[in-house]
Amino acid sequence: MIAGRYRLQEQVGNGAMGVVWKAKDERLGRVVAVKRLLVRYALSDSTAEETRRRAMREARIAARLQHRNAIAMFDVAEHDGDPCLIMEFLPSRSLSAVLAERGALPPEEVAKIGAQAAAALAAAHAVGIVHRDIKPGNILLADNGTVKITDFGISRALDDSTVTTQTGIAGTPAYLAPEIARGEDPTRASDVFSLGSTLYHAVEGRPPFGTNSNPLALLHAVASGNVPPPRNAGPLGGTLTALMRTDPSTRPTMQEAVTALAAAPDTAPLPAPTGPVTPPQPVAALSQPTAPTAALPATPAAPTTPVRGAAPAPVPVRPADPRRKLVLVALAAVLVLSGVVTTILLQNSPGDGGEGTKQAGSQPTLTNPPAESETAPPSSTSSSSSSVQPIDPGGPIDWSDGGEKVIDYFGTFENPTARWNMLSSNAQAQFGGQAAFNEYWSKFTGLSSRQAQMARDNGDGSLTFSVIVTYTRGDGTEEHQREVRVTRENGQIVIDSLAR
User: Fold this and answer.
1) What is its EC number (predicted)?
2) Which of 114, 120, 198, 472 could form a disulfide with 446 if both were Cys (CB 3.0 to 4.6 A apart)?
3) How far is 128 from 72, CA to CA, in rounded Å?
4) pTM for the complete prediction?
């Protein structure tokens, strides 16, 4: 029993500074979370005092923020000399745990998670708080779809700046903004970058700067600000890129991030900044207390987000150059002549009209998963079967071919080597090598898929398919809808996402 009121029931989390328990508030008859910070075995009295001050500081900051997407702070108590924070209990799992189990998530799901997390952070920014440690482990996902931000333990408000961290850098290196890794002070803009890094990890299957176990090497990579473009984000890619702009003054506000993320699945990229650039200012303290509110406070002086679907601003058109017109006409003539020659060659080809010809406008039927006894990789058209070669081996992917590749990938369960070879180099890297790939799939006894339908054209030569996958284990079967990206690599159609 803590403070004669809170009865501990079960441990639900732990970290470097303490443990989190599910507990019963005997006075009010409700379930709460008790975060007990362990300081009894600290190396010195000063360290113990620092931890107690941090607990009180965390409680004050969290109590200032009242929002539906932030874990609420109820009370501060003490047990055997250890400070205990009494907080809202949310039956949930962290985004980190979900990613460890499922791998990369569909962009639409990530956008919904991000919109709720951004709403809480926008409210925090409105009351003068920067979180400073946004990461998958601090985003909680409830079964009913609710998302909540937790652990404001290293957050900072300007009027409480006397408490510092012992490491000199606050936050988890893999998700830090570049300017923080370079030693600058945290701002609202650095929170925006960290949220973008967290969502990037969720949709790509790995943090933007990798997972180097050497913290100094990782900080060096973060400081460079060189984020690989997202490959699996689909319509969310533009928004993630905007959130993780290297220059903090060009990033959108957190409130603009809410608007963009909430627009999923038709997520549009955030507009590039226009006009003079103003460097971000450190978070200012409030001159007067702010009354708690359940609604999302508006970020002060936040730019107005354009309404989706509104007409874009007119772009100045330069007068046409007569010489340029002549060049375009000549180029068009060459293209027409080339098309005529190509048509003649195809019509006279001995392979035309054969069994493999696809009729225009036909709706091909996707292949069924191979039978369990099949061990050979899925068949493909041999180059010797016809004298007609593809005009552009790296050209657009036909939706039926892409769908068949997805069905084959999940259907060729008995031949892991064939399935591994269906992955692009990017997808293989996300699995971490063929040994890790085989180890992951070894926990299943069967696999099949159906209803592979094109979800969207990603605009970069790749397609994303939605497919229903049935997983068989020793204790039964589960059916889930997955999104799989398909592209070309070395002229071959390959799976280009963490398809599992």
Assistant:
1) 2.7.11.1
2) 472
3) 17
4) 0.53
One-letter amino acid of 386 = S
- Strand-pairing partners, residue 7, are 24
Q: Which structural domains are found in the chain, ordered by start?
A: 6-88 (3.30.200.20), 92-262 (1.10.510.10), 399-495 (3.10.450.100)
Q: How many angstroms separate the CA atoms of 71 and 150, rounded?
A: 5
How far apart CA 166 and CA 181 sit, in angstroms, is: 15
**35 labelled binding-site residue:** yes
3-state secondary structure of 110: helix
- Counting every residue, how long is the chain? 500
Phi first, then psi: give them for residue 84, nearest 5 degrees: -130, 125
pLDDT of residue 108: 93
**Cα–Cα distance between 165 and 387 in angstroms, integer?**
70
pLDDT, tens digit, 9 for 90 and up, residues 14-60:
765 678 999 999 999 999 999 887 765 545 677 777 767 777 776 77
CB proximity list for 45: less than 8 A, separation 6 or greater = none
Paired tokens of 288: 């007067």
Residues contacting 457, CB < 8 A, separation 6+ = 463
The answer to whether the bond into 269 is cis (omega within 30° of 0) is no
CB atoms closer than 10 angstroms to residue 151: 22
CA distance 229 to 248: 18
Low-confidence ranges of the chain (pLDDT < 70): 15-17, 39-44, 51, 58, 153-171, 264-395
401 is catalytic: no
Rounded CA-CA distance 204/106 in Å is 9
CB 448 within 8 A of CB 464: no
Angle between helices 107-126 and 188-204 (to 10 degrees): 160
With a CB cutoff of 8 Å and minimum separation 6, the contacts of 88 are 32, 33, 71, 72, 73, 74
Residue 52: per-residue pLDDT? 73
Q: What is the dihedral of CA 419, 413, 405, 451, to 10 degrees?
A: -150
CA distance 343 to 109: 45
What DSSP string runs through 374-393?
A: --SPPP---TTS-SPPPS-T
CA separation, residue 329 to residues 34, 324, 325, 332 (Å) = 74, 9, 6, 5
Q: What is the CA radius of gyration of the chain?
A: 27
Are 356 and 386 within 8 A, CB to CB? yes
The phi, psi pair for 42, rounded to 5°, reads -65, 160
pLDDT given at position 336: 46
Q: In which region does residue 145 sit, left (phi positive, over 0), alpha (psi from -120 to 50) or beta (all else)?
A: left
**Residue with tokens 């055997």, as numbered in its chain:** 80
Given 45, 82, 133, 457, the catalytic residue: 133
